[in-house]
């Protein structure tokens, strides 16, 4: 197995870092790696904001509820970005552009572009011996994150990424069986057996892990999660920024 | 520079493949690599469909308008998937779940999950000496792709990925200058200088490349692209599948 596959297959999210900051050279390498991901029709419809200001990091950690948003080697925020596509447009051009720019297609394009870039950043970091974790919990108060980062119209923050030197190496979390996510030629609606198999795996994983043992299955976690609404404010926020309006 | 960074930084999209099919073992490795990407709150909210049936590949190539959707070593379709999260729900639970499942937050979660998995698949493929290209043009007729793959509610096809042994090695396409996508502490709205610099780079790239020389800048491409609406049917399709409804 080659080194790259080893890096990918050994992934675990790191939520505890030493005090070491990553160097400017490492930051540049990670961003360059992110930029080399594929991009839909060459749009490069994302931006990355590195947050170093302690007050801003503290405020973002408050939004997320996670101390490691403040305490890490570096914090990146990945944004879907259709702002720079209109910078040189005349007023009339901009009016014409909006119906296109603001449709669901371009919410998908910019979100996918940002995520592909982010995953390159994740793999690049891990290949250099660093650890990382995605921070979706910034969407606990997405408008607040927008304000902290001073985002213009047609730019929305999707998630953060913390990177640093791992202080702990947690166990690797199992995934659904391959046949539970990979189908041939058409969608397989009969997923009961792979879900049952996975629930058994997960119960064992939670029973055996060194920290934070519990009794739970994946199915129960998901049923609980989806019983109550969360982050309903993401919808009006995203619309207010000129995404998915049409 | 480590092997993984070299793989990432050498990326170029491959649109022409030899007749070699990739092996089942390679397919499994690529899917396992995809599965090891981070996933929001352990949701694993995506599915991957491998298409081998020649009629289906032909039909998908028609939708995309690209012959390499038919002629490749393997074709994957990546879907945002919230279907399996409800399989074991009672009817009453399902009713409660929908407001949550169908909000914009979970369109973002599932789209991001699918894209992170896909980029792991891309890097894994390239690390094995294969070439790949994303196929966003499946969204030219997203309902048709849905029908071909027999997708249930709460599953939407986002993009395809073709993988295979490269028949040609195209030149690498330049990216925006680093300071054009990476900002510190807040968004930088003054992007004129990086866009001007990039437009100059791009003009030179198109003038010098061996195939398909042309005179064009990135800014002009983007202004043209966004002048006319495209894929407006993605909006009602996505809503009809129970995404971004609330």
Automatic annotation (TrEMBL), chains A, B:
CDD domains listed in its UniProt record: NfsA-like
Regions annotated as coiled coil: 80-107
UniProtKB keywords: Coiled coil, Flavoprotein, FMN, NADP, Oxidoreductase
InterPro entries to which the protein is assigned, alphabetical: Flavin_OxRdtase_Frp, Nitroreductase, Nitroreductase-like
Annotated ranges, domain Nitroreductase: 8-162
Family note: Belongs to the flavin oxidoreductase frp family.
Protein's recorded name: Oxygen-insensitive NADPH nitroreductase
């Amino acid at each position: 197995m080659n080194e790259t596959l080893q890096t990918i297959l050994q992934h675990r999210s790191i939520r505890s870092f030493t005090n070491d900051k990553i160097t400017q050279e490492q930051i540049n390498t990670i961003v360059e790696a992110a930029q080399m991901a594929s991009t839909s029709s060459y749009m490069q419809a994302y931006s990355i904001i590195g947050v170093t200001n302690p007050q801003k990091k503290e405020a973002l950690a408050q939004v997320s509820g996670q101390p490691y948003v403040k305490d890490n080697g570096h914090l990146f925020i990945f944004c879907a970005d259709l702002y720079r596509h209109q910078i040189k447009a005349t007023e009339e051009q901009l009016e014409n552009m909006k119906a296109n720019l603001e449709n669901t297609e371009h919410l998908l394009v910019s979100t996918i572009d940002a995520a592909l870039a982010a995953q390159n950043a994740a793999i690049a970091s891990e290949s250099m011996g660093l650890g990382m974790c995605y921070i979706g919990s910034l969407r606990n108060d997405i408008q607040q994150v927008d304000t902290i980062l001073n985002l213009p119209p047609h730019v929305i923050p999707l998630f953060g990424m913390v990177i640093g030197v791992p202080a702990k190496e947690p166990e690797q979390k199992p995934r659904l069986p391959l046949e539970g996510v990979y189908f041939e030629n058409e969608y397989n609606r009969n997923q009961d057996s792979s879900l049952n198999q996975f629930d058994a795996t997960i119960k064992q994983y939670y029973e055996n892990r060194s920290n934070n043992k519990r009794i739970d299955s994946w199915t129960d976690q998901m049923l609980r999660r989806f019983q109550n609404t969360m982050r309903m404010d993401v919808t009006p926020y995203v619309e207010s920024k000129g995404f998915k309006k049409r």
